[in-house]
Structure formats: structure tokens, C-alpha cells
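hey can u check if this looks right to u? its 327 residues, i copy pasted from the old doc so theres a chance i mangled smth
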Amino acid sequence: MATHRYGRSLVGAALAILYLAGMGWTAEENDESPSSLVKQDLDVQDGTATLRWKLQPGASFRYRMEQQMDVPAAGRVPAQSAMLGMDVSWTVVAVNDAGIADMRLTIDRIRMKTNSVSSASDIDTARPAKDALEELMLEGTQPLLEAEFGFRLSPRGESSDFTQPEEVENLRGALSGADSNSPIEVLKQVLALLAPTLPEAALSSGDTWEHAAQARIGEDGSKSIDLDLTYRGTVERASLPLHVVDFVPQIEMSAIRGGLIRIRSVTKEGEGRLLFDNEAGRLVEFEVVELADMEMSLGADKKTTQMTNRVAARLLTENEPVDEGAP
């Protein structure tokens, strides 16, 4: 009974973080944090390219994704911060004649840190439990670590046909009810950022396009993600030409928590960047930093604050070991 209770608490907290911020990941600002991709002064060369995902049956690649969310105190609501990290594997199951791939996503590692006035936690499925309580909490991650999620991905990055195990959906409902976020809706939000739809035509430096996506939050909430993207050209990394795309995000979210607390957030300012390996046909690195105005209301009591959210991902090398010190 204790294992079940603590496990639910952990997974519920993880889903709540995803629900509020939208997934991906960002390292906390400490000595272990990677340099910010959006802040790097890249030596970008003008270029022309038709960007496409190139997916072959049986291919598999891994991403390390991380997210940091910080909310300052607002009235009686204390300051809170949360970090969620995941190593995920993408496997190409099959590809049809149009190049559309059936994909399988599995979660290989979860790391979560939360901090508020009332509680703090720090767990990592890549390391042994430090005590009995952490061992119980780690057991609660098993439904997510054992799950296989599915989706389809086109050469232009269009995602569709999302699937998830029934056990995961049932777990969500048992944890928080109808107002919590489904992992499938979280996956949609992830792919809206990591795999925005690519233009059909070839791009030249300075060309722009837009991408928009919608996702549900519980029964009554929603999240819209709009990106204004600009193709910059190429930059060389490890003797490979990577294509640079900068973008400006506009993200709006509205939801109800616990049937009582209404939450609404709107991007105030933000910037993002992705690096794409067009030869291999896959994303190599990604980051978006967002400052959002956030409004929380309970009846007539309304508080406004700002939330900072940083989401990042990078492609892992084939035999890259787990760095237990890294987020």
C-alpha cells in the first residue's frame, strides 16, 4: 500500500510538471548546465536546403530532454521550481511509400527535482535509491519506464496517430482525475517544439514560415503553440554541416486544477533555436526559453506572476554513457 501511494505521488508530480510547462527539458543553472544554445554566437553561413526527416525502418536514436520551470511567490502561493529530465528512445518501426514512419517512443531514464516551501525531492532512475523512501518513489516511475508510446512522423515533421498504453492513461485518471494532462497530449506538445512542420519548398537564408499546434489539458483546458521560424543557414560541428533555424514562440495555456484553481499563462517574450542534420535527417539540438505571464485564480481571489520555462533537447551519441551528474 505504501509503495502504491508514494508511486502515485511521484508520477502525479511528474505529470503535473509536464501539464504546467509543456515538456522537454532544461538544466538548472549550476556548474553542470550546458551552455545555452539560443545565446551562442554561431558562425552561420548562408545556405539553401530542403529540410526533411529521413527515417529508415529499424533505425533508433536517443534524445536527452530536460525542462526547468520556476514560478515566484504570488500572494499566498509560495515560490516553486521543478526540473524534469528524460532520456527517450525513438525507434522507426515501419515506413510507408510516402516516407511516413510509424514511430515508437520509450522512456529510458527519468530525473526529477522539485522545490517548494512544503517539500523537496530529487530522484534519478539511473542511480540506486539513497534511502527507503526514494526506493519507493523510484518504483512509482515503472509505469512510465515500461510504457511504449506510438506516433507517425512524416518527412516534413508532421506528427499524427498518437497512441499510449491503457495502463498509463488509467494511471493518470486515478492520480488527478479529468483535469490532469494525458501523456499523449504531452507528447503532442513535445513534437510541436522538437519537430515543427518543415516547408515543402527549399529554404534559403532569411526565409520564414509558421507552425501551429494545439493540445488538450484535461477535459476543459487547452494549450496552443505558435512558432515563427526563420532559416539562418549552416554551421559546422564535428565536421558536419548543421542547419540553423531560429524561432519566436507564442504559447498560451489555460486549465483548471483540482476543479477549483484556474490557471492561464501567455508568453511575454521568448526565443528558440534548433540544429538539424539534413544529411541524416534528424534533429540534433534544440532549446527554447520563455518568460510567461501567469494568472492563477480561486474564486474572486486572483494572483498574477511570471513563470520562466526553459526546454532543451539534444541527440545522444550511440554509445553515450549515462552521466549521473547531468540532468
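DSSP finds five helices and 14 strands in the chain.
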